[in-house]
Design a protein that fits this description.
155 residues, mainly alpha, 3 domains
């Protein structure tokens, strides 16, 4: 046994402690950076609580998005919250796009969200088809915005 009380060498222990301290410091910096970004978004009129909810839904698989939004619409109606005509359109969302344009628009929205969220370029569609090209083009636009925001924040 060594002075720590078991067979772990002190050098290994210190390496882990230093790595954890560095990770904690990086986490604090990231949280401070996120706080600044959120403050700027709020100053520009974004309602952060609503954006957070929207991001959770946007990050779901498509079928879960549809189910969640339909459930929320139903719950709001049962609570007698006035739900406008726009929200009632959610009930008619179908999994298969009615046209190629709808499919491209859906793919572009997914690609942009992936890019602006800083995710890797992992296109879920065939990249040589129109839907895949729409996803990739939108991903690159979103990624450019993500990269520009990262530079602006000093990362």
């Amino acid at each position: 046994m060594n002075e720590i009380g078991h067979n772990l060498p002190p050098e290994t222990f210190h390496t882990h402690v230093a790595a954890m301290a560095k990770a904690r410091a990086n986490s604090r910096l990231a949280k401070a950076s996120e706080k600044k970004v959120r403050q700027r978004a709020k100053a520009d009129g974004i309602i952060l609580k609503d954006l957070d909810r929207a991001l959770v839904i946007a990050d779901m698989p498509r079928e879960d998005q549809t189910e969640t939004l339909n459930n929320m619409t139903s719950y709001l109606r049962m609570l007698r919250v006035p739900v406008g005509a726009q929200l009632s359109l959610l009930e008619v969302i179908e999994e298969d796009a009615a046209s190629e344009e709808d499919a491209k628009a859906k793919a572009a929205a997914q690609g942009f969200l992936a890019g602006v969220s800083g995710k890797s370029e992992n296109c879920p569609y065939e990249p040589n088809q129109a839907v895949g090209m729409a996803w990739l083009d939108a991903y690159r636009d979103g990624r450019a915005k993500y990269d520009a925001a990262s530079v602006d924040d000093g990362e």
